[in-house]
Amino acid sequence: MSGSRSLRIALLMGGTSAERDVSLHTGEQVGRALEQRGHSVERIDTQDLGFIERLQTGAFDVAFVCLHGRFGEDGTIQGLLEILDLPYVGSGVLASALAMDKVASKHIFAGSELRTPASVSLEQMPADVGGITDALGTKLVVKPASEGSSVGMSIVHDASELLPALELAFRHGRIVLVEEYVAGVEVTVGVLGNDELTALPTLEVVPEHEFYDYESKYVPGMSKHIIPARVSENARQECQRTALEAHRALGCRGMSRSDMIVTDDGTVYLLEVNTIPGMTSTSLLPDSARAAGIEFPELCDSLVALALER
Length: 310
What we know:
By secondary structure, the chain is an alpha+beta fold. Helices cover about 35% and strands about 20% of the residues.
């Protein structure tokens, strides 16, 4: 907790990524929560580069980063805050960059013996998709390597759908990740802390669509959250262990949220780690924290305290 002291907080939101609207929504809700805890909050839209001067002259105690996607989650804004010597909520430059790059993070996970779906990465459209389907099967997941909120992501059901899915993904990024499709229960686990870590309860995501896409994430009623996840107790423990190990492997600080698939036999596959999870009314991390007895204003206040602790 940040204690009873009222802090001056720069709340960074909006920005220029494909997730700008979500960031604005997240920022507004976080801002209200922090004000409820007695803090002075200045909402700053980083779309206007004048925000840098505001950070330099605003006499802020801490920055709360509510930016999603590029220039928010990828280490760039974190690097700026480091230069300005302004404490900030969430992971540092390297962990942010690694988590945002799904190809790089998969290498880290493999080195930590964390199971992830088999995959290939592409820097250009392939002349022939046969090699991809031979290696990974015909049902696939295609996504840009460095986007969030399922932007540019597709589920491919047969080889005829692969090229259009790749074209869509390349419109959103220079590198595209193609993964084998792993069927199972979608589970997410939040982690809070710096040196001493706490894994939040497992949360099962049941989207209205085929997968947890942009609309499922941010439109009320388009997904259900079930806590704890409807998997075996062993699988729940493995999900929490995986989230903690992934958080440590990437060097995350403050918070993270790991997304996983649990197969029918209880095998856990780690998909990705989010270093700035959504904080809207439909978001996963606040729901998991609430199930652990941490209401939203307390969660936001705790994240500020963790930033200052560093």
